[in-house]
Specification:
Blueprint lengths: L1 E5 L3 H10 L5 E6 L11 E4 L5 H8 L4 E4 L6 H8 L3 E2 L3 H8 L1 H10 L7 E4 L2 H11 L3 E5 L9 E4 L5 H8 L4 E5 L5 E9 L5 E3 L3 E6 L2 E7 L6 H18 L3 E10 L2 E8 L9 H4 L4 H9 L12 E8 L5 H5 L4 E5 L9 E9 L2 H14 L9
Parallel strand pairs: 1-2, 1-4, 2-3, 4-5
Antiparallel strand pairs: 6-9, 7-8, 7-9, 10-11, 10-12, 10-14, 12-13, 13-16, 14-15, 16-18, 17-18
Helix pairs in contact: 1-10, 3-4, 4-5
Bound molecules: adenosine-5'-diphosphate and magnesium ion.
Magnesium ion binds next to loops.
């Protein structure tokens, strides 16, 4: 089976390697000839909105998926006229615009933080008056790793925030005083079968994911069930096929959805070593119409992102249970260059090794955002 993947970043690279033993070969479309996925599969270099590049990419394929969520929806729709595109382009459309996403989540009964649409400075003043301080002003489109966001702490921040972001379509969100951030990764097959991974705890700094712990500790059965219920409502409403991630804020026993990703997700990288079936394999199984694999965790895992600077490989590999994944990207502040997953049989052992590992991860140099 040959699967086309829109986007050729590290997610694509990991998809290709998961597909290989299943007899699935990936072909990627990416604007960069240096795209990481090119080392693991065929790479078509071209713009996502170039019809000739899309045609070259789709030639001979029966199935297309994506690893990058900002592919133009029109391109996915164009491809869908000649090949099966999964997850459905509608999922891409919903996830690309924070406003559409929030409306969609609310419509299927998934709670989100209070929000207001902002298109002018006076909208922004009204929205701040409604939601109070602090509030987070975000671009509706193209934000990632915390880019395109500003926290408004008080009245003096309103005009500067507007001046920096006023050109774009915006949304203002109430600032959530969460206890922690979690994510739920779910997968749905072509036959409608679904499975969820255990909730993951995510730590962000400067808007970038730094560390995931999986399974998250102290998760009640009710909390896991609530997260799975939310994921199921999203999957079913979209007729979704593939892996979906929902980022969540935990406030007491409540879960507010922050955003969703219609693709494999950084907070699921631990599944390569830490789960019976990785998110990458399960995504490919789902879109290819194969039976889904078990989502059970194997012991306890920590995933640490390598951001901006590369670590001492030898020292990292000296830690038992540490697995290094370097994406082959040139170092640059704020850039995800790789990750390390640490797997242990129990939580105490994981914490001990994780403390050792964290000392080996160099801090991200300034200048990333
Ligand atoms: N409304 C909010 N309240 C509190 N923290 C937030 C809020 N929105 C975002 N954040 C913080 O910023 C991080 C990045 O925001 P997110 O909306 O997920 O953007 P991105 O698309 O860049 O990942 C979140 O993981 C969270 O730590
Ligand atoms: Mg996010």
């Amino acid at each position: 089976v040959r699967v086309g993947v829109l986007g050729g970043g590290q997610l694509g690279w990991m998809l290709a390697r998961a597909g290989d033993p299943l007899g699935i070969r990936c072909r990627f479309l990416d604007p960069s000839p240096a795209a990481p996925a090119g080392r693991a599969g065929e790479l078509v270099v071209g713009a996502y909105d170039d019809p000739a590049a899309l045609d070259r990419f789709a030639d001979g394929l029966a199935l297309v998926t994506y690893e990058f969520e900002n592919v133009p929806v029109g391109s996915a729709q164009r491809l869908a006229q000649r090949v099966r595109v999964l997850p459905p382009p509608r999922a891409l459309e919903v996830a690309q615009d924070r406003l559409t996403e929030k409306r969609f989540l609310e419509s299927v009964g998934v709670p989100v933080a209070p929000w207001r649409s902002v298109a002018s400075l006076s909208d922004l003043r009204d929205a701040v008056a409604d939601l109070g301080y602090p509030a987070v002003l975000k671009t509706r489109r193209l934000g990632y790793d915390g880019k395109g966001q500003h926290v408004i702490e008080g009245p003096d921040d309103i005009e500067p925030a507007w001046a920096r972001q006023g050109e774009a379509l915006l949304v203002l969100e109430g600032f959530v005083r969460f206890e922690r951030e979690l994510s739920i990764l779910a997968v749905r097959g072509r036959d409608g079968a679904t499975a969820c991974y255990p909730l993951v705890e995510n730590l962000h700094a400067g808007g970038i994911l730094r560390r995931s712990l999986a399974p998250a500790v102290a998760v009640s059965a009710a909390l896991q069930a609530r997260a799975e219920g939310q994921a199921h409502r999203v999957l079913d409403a979209l007729g979704y096929v593939g892996v979906l991630a929902i980022e969540l804020f935990q406030v007491g026993e409540r879960l507010l959805a922050n955003e969703m990703a219609p693709r494999v997700h950084n907070s699921g990288h631990w599944t390569i070593e830490g789960a019976a079936t990785s998110q990458f394999e399960n995504h490919l199984r789902a879109v290819a119409g194969l039976p889904l694999g078990s989502t059970a965790a194997r012991g306890a895992s920590a995933m640490l992102n390598l951001i901006g600077r590369l670590p001492d490989t030898v020292a990292i590999l000296g830690i038992p249970g540490a697995h290094l994944h370097l994406y082959g990207k040139a170092p640059r502040p704020g850039r995800k260059l790789g990750h390390v997953t640490l797997r242990a049989d129990d939580q105490a052992e994981l914490e001990r090794l994780c403390a050792r590992l964290e000392r080996l991860i160099p801090p991200d140099p300034p200048g990333g955002s």
